[in-house]
Amino acid sequence: MRPDIGKIGVWRLASELSIGLIRQLEQLGYATVWIGGSPPGDLALAESLLDATEHVTIATGIVNVWSCSPHEVAHSYHRIADRYGSRFLLGIGVGHREGTARYERPYDTLTRWLDELDAAGVPTDRRVLAALGPKVVCLAGSRTAGAHTYLTTPEHTRRTRVLLGAGPLLAVEQKVVFDTDAQRARALGRAVIVNPYLGLTNYINNLLRLGYSRDELRQGGSDRLIDALALHGDASTIAGGLRAHLDAGADHVCLQLLCQPGEDPVPAYRALAATLIDPA
Could you tell me which residues are beta bridge partners of residue 149? Predict the structure, then answer.
């Protein structure tokens, strides 16, 4: 069964999540909040956020398989599921070879992890797999509830839906800058995208498959690339960009709001929620 995580959620680094913010996001109507930045296998942050809220789903985006063991994660999953049931979604992934000294046979490592999660009783429909390339997308569709994609475009979403077929979940991350000044918005988006993402082989290869040239990936990325990976504009413009993923086959889009240092993110979340989320 595909998990019900709503159409619109929020992806935010673990270091930028707080009890106060998660409560405001829940009040604004965001269905799911994704904990980014490879949260540890004890899943303590997810548990604390669930404890502080009433109905929002908490997902990990993603637990890195090189940083902990499947036994630890399975134990943590059951501890949380026993208290909060379907309000928790476990996202796991293989990360990037540039950040992992042991990055050997990643596909085999993912399948071993899934085997051990199966053996530990972690339900298939309460876990998703980070996926970009076709092979891992197909693994996500066959061994988990579906795929969680990151740093992609609606064209990638369309291709991924074709690979997954109609059944599995497709949850897509999309960066946004709530700013109508294109130069300022691109500067913020470029700073986040170039370092580290345009230095990571998995993302580079995926963008090349999508038709971007190597020249567009060099020297800070072309404006065309930055505009696609970090949508900018007013609430209506950003909402249109997020809906493009839904129209291309995504079930869920989790927006990653990029802000200037020290900027309060809540006004932007509120404006976007008013445009994106239907009142209950």
Answer: 172
User: How many residues in the chain?
Assistant: 280
Q: Are 155 and 248 in contact (CB under 8 A)?
A: yes
* Ramachandran angles phi, psi of 28, nearest 5°: -75, -15
- The pLDDT tens digits for 141-191 are 999 999 999 999 999 999 999 999 999 999 999 999 999 999 999 999 999
Q: CA 130 → CA 166, 191, 264, distances in Å?
A: 18, 23, 29
Distance between CA atoms of 184 and 190, rounded to whole angstroms?
Answer: 10
CA distances from 61 to 11, 166, 247 (A): 8, 22, 23
pLDDT in tens, 207-246: 999 999 999 999 899 999 999 999 999 999 999 999 999 9
Query: What predicted TM-score, i.e. pTM, was given to this entire model?
Result: 0.97
Q: In whole angstroms, what is the distance from residue 106 CA to residue 37 CA? A: 19
Q: What sign for the dihedral angle of Cα 42, 46, 50, 56?
A: negative
How many CB atoms within 10 Å of residue 83?
12
Q: Are 73 and 112 in contact (CB under 8 A)?
A: no
Domains delineated in the chain? 8-276 (3.20.20.30)
Per-residue pLDDT of 20-75, as tens digits, reads 999 999 999 999 999 999 999 999 999 999 999 999 999 999 999 999 999 999 99
